[in-house]
Amino acid sequence: MAIKISFLNLKGGVGKTSMIVNVGACLAYMGKRVLIVDLDAQSNSSIWLMRLDRWNAQNRYPEKFALNLFKNPDAKITDCIHKSPVRDLEGEVALESLDLIPASFSLLDLEHDVENKTDVPFYIQFYEHMADIEMLYDFILFDCPPSFYYAPQAAIFNSDWVIVPANADALSIIGFHLLTEKLNKFKEKTEDHRNELHSPTPEIMGVSLNAIKPGVRIDVPVERFENQIERFIEQRKVPTKTELFPTRIRHSITVGRAVMQGQPMVLMPKNEGSMSVAKDYIKTSQYILERCGITL
Ligand SMILES: Nc1ncnc2c1ncn2[C@@H]1O[C@H](COP(=O)(O)OP(=O)(O)O)[C@@H](O)[C@H]1O
Ligand SMILES: [Mg+2]
After folding, report:
1. Could you tell which of 7, 11, 18, 283 is best to mutate to test the pocket of ligand 1, judged by most ligand atoms within 8 Å of the CB?
2. How distant is the alpha carbon of residue 172 from its chain centre?
3. Ligand 1 within 6 A of CB of 256
């Protein structure tokens, strides 16, 4: 069965999408079967992996997007899986074992205009869809919007782990506090359903610091994050192994370039900037494997 991980932060622009695309790519590069599920209406990971032209063309088929899994009771999840979307710079299929369930802008409707025609909560409908395919993958990674509405709830209800990408600043620490409280409330609220369905208990694996600029000192926010995590461990609000990830993802302008070229960092042309960030993502992926008890 796949290990399922949500990448979540209530703050936008902290590196959730960059982390999911690049960790997903690294895991596939290491030979793992990976599915990225884009549950953010901004569709950033879908556009990064499919590139804008293919994603635009796919928009003619709304049944092939994540929203359909919530909107249409007869939807088949296999229809939504876009196989091996990544192309290298020559246009050849790369990372064959990386698949995607894409989002489109209309996923926003889920929070406003999609009526739940059943009395089964959206997160359970989604859980039942995921159950049909999880044996096909080693990892299923959910890209979440910066909110706690239906789409992230569906991701969290389905996850074994939550990873919190964050920036090294004071506001991110406040955001982490809020996120942990929200997550624990959601876990309490859904406990009966989780017990009934034997669905996983989502736990915070840790916080991954992103876009760290060279020469910028981050000792103060790092210490505050560590103190906050320690307090949460004492209060039993997070597992005892929760920690700041040992590898911090360095800042590099090549990340923006990689988005434009539809390339994960491991496939980008090698230069100093791209190699340092690619290494950070590889190390982070190795750490995630270790935390999941998987040896290569
Ligand atoms: N390591 C990095 N170095 C430089 N820019 C980065 C890095 N990681 C992310 N970015 C940029 O920061 C912005 C926000 O990142 P993104 O992953 O989209 O965040 P989120 O999904 O949390 O909104 C994007 O423009 C992205 O290209
Ligand atoms: Mg994003």
Report:
1. 18
2. 17
3. yes
**CA angle at residue 10 from 39 to 105, to 5 degrees?**
30
Structure tokens at 24: 């997903």
CB of 209 within 8 A of CB of 168?
yes
What does the block give as tokens for 29? 């590069």
Please give the distance, rounded to the nearest whole angstrom, from the Cα atom of residue 196 to the centre of ligand 2. 32
What domains can be seen in the chain, in order of their start residue?
3-291 (3.40.50.300)
The answer to whether 15 and 167 have CB atoms below 8 angstroms apart is yes
Per-residue pLDDT tens for 130-168?
Answer: 999 999 999 999 999 999 999 999 999 999 999 999 999
CA dist., res. 63 & res. 79, Å (int): 7
Q: What is the pLDDT of residues 213-242, one digit of tens each?
A: 999 999 999 999 999 999 999 999 999 999
DSSP 207-249: EEE--BPTT---HHHHHHHHHHHHHHHHTTSS-TT-EE-SSPP
pTM of the model as a whole = 0.97
Residue 60 has which token pair? 């003619």
Spatial strand order in the sheet of 34-38: 98-101, 34-38, 139-143, 3-7, 161-166, 203-209, 243-244
Cβ(24)–Cβ(137) under 8 Å? no
Q: Is 53 helix (H, G, I), strand (E, B) or coil?
A: helix
